[in-house]
Specification:
single chain; 344 residues; alpha/beta; Rossmann fold; 2 domains; 6-stranded mixed sheet; 10 helices; 13 strands; 40% helix; rod-shaped; membrane; transmembrane helix; vWA_BatA_type
Length: 344
């Protein structure tokens, strides 16, 4: 798209006509010899002296009009605007912490087709769908069992994140459950993030059995760093040992960090949990738009200079050829010493 950056400068176009109409004509001053019998000398040589004036040349007038229009157009700064370039930057960093302890092998999750699958398989299916819906967020993945490990750092490369999610299996991090350590690893991953919102979604089917940092203390550290922790408990809260899910601890963690606690007993309810999380942490990005511009003011400016140069060059050549045609044997420099008849 073509446009003028300063179109209001086109209002200067009439100034050329006003200057031509109301300013006095320019007359070049020349030296002259004043003699008392000038009229007699003029009659003796058959000359008719006239006062100096300006010879009107239609071509030169047209050139001046065109050059003025080109200069004003250059001042208005014509430019070509390219299609806008958009850059989308996320405003939220979101970590997913998944329990992969031995108990995640329990086949009590019912998928949408009515078949029983192990808990980890059901969780991975739901998490993969959640990742697909957060295409502009930076997401990271933490896995934890006896210890907690970052499986994937914060990234917008969701294809690689899905590959790493698919590669996790139960028992990789040990048979126990370290909820506090998982929150601690998430804090380290989010600590240096520059985005406005920082969220951790923690999913577990067990109770904490030996974290280096107790879950309540880890939750307090997350709250101090403005990290929201949403907790999801799956499994039987009435179970024993590792089979028991401590919903009270998960509620306390969520409450301490201004997050929410959810309970999911099967894949359908877990799907609903992640749909709710998608609503309470809405998709949001910052959009940066930039329109590349190419300046073309040099085109009318260069054309104006070129026209003036061609005009003056042709005028000089015409003058030289005219003097040679008038007197082929005359010295070219002689004409420069000749005077001009003017009345005084």
């Amino acid at each position: 798209m073509w446009r003028l950056e300063y179109p209001w400068l086109l209002a200067l176009l009439p100034l050329g006509w006003l200057a031509y109409r109301y300013l006095p004509s320019y007359v070049q001053r020349r030296g002259a010899v004043r003699i008392p019998f000038f009229e007699s000398v003029a009659r003796s040589v058959g000359q008719s002296p006239q006062r100096p004036g300006v010879r009107r040349d239609g071509w030169q007038l047209a050139l001046n009009v065109l050059v003025w229009a080109l200069l004003v157009l250059a001042l208005a700064r014509p430019e070509r605007v390219e299609p806008p370039l958009e850059h989308r930057q996320p405003v939220r960093d979101l970590m997913l912490a998944l329990d992969i302890s031995q108990s995640m092998e329990t086949q009590d999750f019912v998928n949408p087709q009515g078949k029983r699958v192990d808990r980890l398989t059901g969780v991975k299916t739901v998490v993969a769908d959640f990742i697909a819906r957060r295409k502009d967020d930076r997401l990271g993945l933490i896995v934890f069992g006896t210890a907690a490990y970052p499986q994937a750092p914060l990234t917008q490369d969701h294809a690689t994140l899905n590959v790493l999610l698919d590669q996790i299996s139960t028992g990789m991090a040990g048979p126990n459950t370290a909820i506090g350590d998982a929150i601690g690893v998430a804090i380290k991953q989010l600590e240096h993030a520059a985005e406005r919102d920082k969220v951790l979604i923690l999913l577990t089917d067990g109770n904490d059995t030996g974290s280096a940092v107790p879950p309540d203390r880890a939750a307090g550290m997350a709250a101090d760093r403005h990290i929201i922790v949403h907790t999801i408990g799956i499994g039987d809260p009435q179970g024993q040992g590792e089979e028991k899910v401590d919903f009270d601890v998960l509620r306390q963690i969520a409450k301490a960090t201004a997050g929410r606690f959810f309970s999911a007993q099967d894949q359908a309810s877990l799907q609903q949990v992640y749909a709710t999380l998608d609503q309470i942490t809405p998709h949001e990005v910052r959009e940066f738009r930039h329109q590349p511009k190419q300046d073309f003011f040099w085109v009318p400016l260069g054309l104006a200079v070129l026209l003036l140069g061609v005009w003056h060059l042709s005028a000089a050549l015409r003058g030289r050829l005219g003097r040679r045609n008038a007197d082929p044997n005359a010295d070219p420099k002689a004409g420069q010493k000749e005077g001009v008849w003017k009345s005084t």
